[in-house]
Design brief:
Residues 416-485 form the Peptidase S12 Pab87-related C-terminal domain. This protein is of the alpha+beta class. It has 13 helices and 21 strands. Strands 1, 3, 4, 5, 9, 10, 11 and 12 form an 8-stranded antiparallel β-sheet that branches. The chain has an 8-stranded antiparallel barrel with strand order 14-15-16-17-18-19-20-21. A 3-stranded antiparallel β-sheet has the order 6-8-7.
Length: 502
């Protein structure tokens, strides 16, 4: 039985409207590029598409999701074709988002971190398949019986196959005492996360681990004999032109003034404006979509052997091709070094998504043809990100990238809709409540936001903001006794109705 993924039920309804303004340099672009910008702004689309519906506008979707600020950069033919900001970096200060506004990149930091590790490989400072304790000097990893006698290697740290604990980190409030990297690794105060330890033997399988990334942060610093943020600035960010980016806490006033403020899904400003992430390799990058796009382009060119500002062609292919260990079918075919691989209609893209409190982002880069996009927002309402990517993919003819699930609306009479209203057992201590609203239904699971479902047939309904389906079940007397809930095409088990004679 597949465990219900309740986090995917969350849909954030529009409560208040935000006034979205557009800031960019579109006037400096050619008429052809300006036309494509306008098309991108008017062609947003989700994974579910209802026949007859028109595409959404970027401004409308920002208002729908209560996203205060959004920034985008588009790569075409191995160049950044355009970059533009929308809305506000800070609503109180009335400070607009521009192409130079910096956002927290969250786990996109891991892509740049992998570049840093591979830079050390290129410089023959480390071997990817050697015990990390050979390179760690200020701290050593304490192997135990869980490791089963096997050693963790650098390539396992950046491919999420190290077997180490901790998915991600919460960050720290400004004004908090910030722990050292060793305090974080050992889970000692003032660290707010548990210690990093083995949960299965190295190389056994894939499990996403911000803990592993954090170990690699210390490894890089120890090998380079300098602070991690300085190494990354001098050896990764500057060489590929990411001049607006940095790891760690901003100190220069011009950088501080360029930072976006974080907002909650309801539009409330985060106290202190943003969190601090000393776990820099895992989540500590501040950057812009334009700078991420420079990483995309450099990776594409290096992959083809047309640039070697950081990596050789061999190293770039190691980073961007699927990381496969011989005779280990437990490893996913879409994982690599600091990136994930997505295949669409026979064409491959490298990508990563990131999220800290009040920030989410995503980037895609094609393996051939020099196409890509990076989108960043100062909100955690992340569904808009893929909608923007889908728009770019259509306008720029990413063949076969956008393949939505097509649905047809079929009206259902009110008496039938009313018969479905009620409570259903969804999971332990979780009730799914169905209510009738107008000509459709709404669903709400205990502790989660309400979402709309629309009729495809008299008994089958679907959500629009994510791929979920509900099928109502009737007995021989035409009474509703339960429902089936399906996610991403998986039609799950029956959820029984509670206390109803309808």
């Amino acid at each position: 039985m597949r465990k219900p993924n309740l986090s995917l039920l969350i849909v954030f309804p529009l409560i208040i409207l935000i006034q979205v303004k557009v800031y960019g340099q579109s006037n400096s672009y050619s008429p052809e590029v300006q036309e494509r910008i306008l098309r991108v702004e008017k062609s947003l689309a989700g994974s579910i598409w209802i026949k007859g519906e028109q595409p959404w506008s970027l401004i409308d979707r920002m208002q729908y999701y209560k996203v205060m600020g959004l920034s985008i950069a588009v790569v075409n033919n191995y160049q950044i074709e355009w970059a533009k900001g929308y809305g506000y970096a800070d609503t109180t200060e009335k400070r607009p988002v521009t192409a130079n506004t910096l956002f927290q990149a969250g786990s996109v930091s891991k892509s740049l971190n992998a570049l840093g590790v591979l830079k050390l490989v290129n410089d023959k400072k480390i071997d990817l398949n050697t015990d990390i304790n050979n390179y760690l000097e200020s701290w050593k990893f304490n192997y135990d019986s869980i490791s089963n006698g096997k050693k963790i290697t650098p390539i396992q740290l950046i491919s999420h196959t190290s077997g180490l604990s901790i998915w991600g980190f919460d960050g720290y409030d400004r004004g908090d005492t910030i722990p050292t990297i060793i305090e974080i690794l050992e889970g000692k105060k003032p660290a707010n996360s548990p210690p990093i330890y083995s949960i299965f033997e190295p190389g056994l399988k894939f499990q996403y681990s911000g803990g592993g990334s954090t170990v690699s942060q210390l490894m890089i610093a120890d090998i380079a004999k300098m602070n991690y943020d300085k190494f990354m600035l001098d050896n990764v960010l500057k060489p590929i032109g990411m001049t607006n980016s940095f790891f760690g806490t901003p100190v220069k006033i011009n950088k501080i003034q360029a930072l976006a403020t974080a907002y909650s899904p309801t539009g409330a400003e985060l106290p202190g404006k943003y969190k601090i992430h000393p776990e820099m390799a895992a989540a500590g990058l501040w950057t812009t979509p334009s700078d991420i796009s420079k990483f995309i382009v450099e990776s594409q060119l290096s992959y083809e052997g047309r640039s070697n500002k950081i990596l050789s062609k061999e190293s770039a292919r190691l980073m961007l091709d699927p990381y496969i260990v011989t005779n280990n079918s437990a490893l996913p075919k879409n994982g690599s070094l600091g990136v994930f691989i997505d295949e669409k209609n026979g064409k491959r893209y490298f990508l990563h998504k990131g999220g800290n409190v009040g920030f989410v982002c995503i980037y895609y880069g094609s393996m051939e043809g020099g196409k890509g996009v990076a989108v960043m927002i100062n909100s955690n309402n992340d569904k808009i990100l893929q909608e923007v990517v889908n728009s770019v993919s259509q306008v720029y003819d990413w063949d076969g990238f956008y393949t939505p699930i097509i649905k047809t609306l079929n009206p259902v009479v009110e008496t039938v809709l009313e018969s479905y209203a009620g409570n259903y057992e969804f999971a332990p201590n979780v009730i799914l409540t169905i209510t009738k609203v107008g000509n459709h239904l709404k669903a709400k699971a205990t502790g989660f936001k309400e979402f709309e479902v629309f009729p495809e047939t008299e008994s089958k309904f679907f959500a629009k903001d994510f791929n979920a389906e509900i099928e109502f079940l009737k007995d021989d007397e035409n009474k509703v006794y339960g429902l089936k809930y399906g996610l991403d095409g998986d039609n799950d088990y029956v959820r029984k109705r509670i206390n109803s004679d309808k």
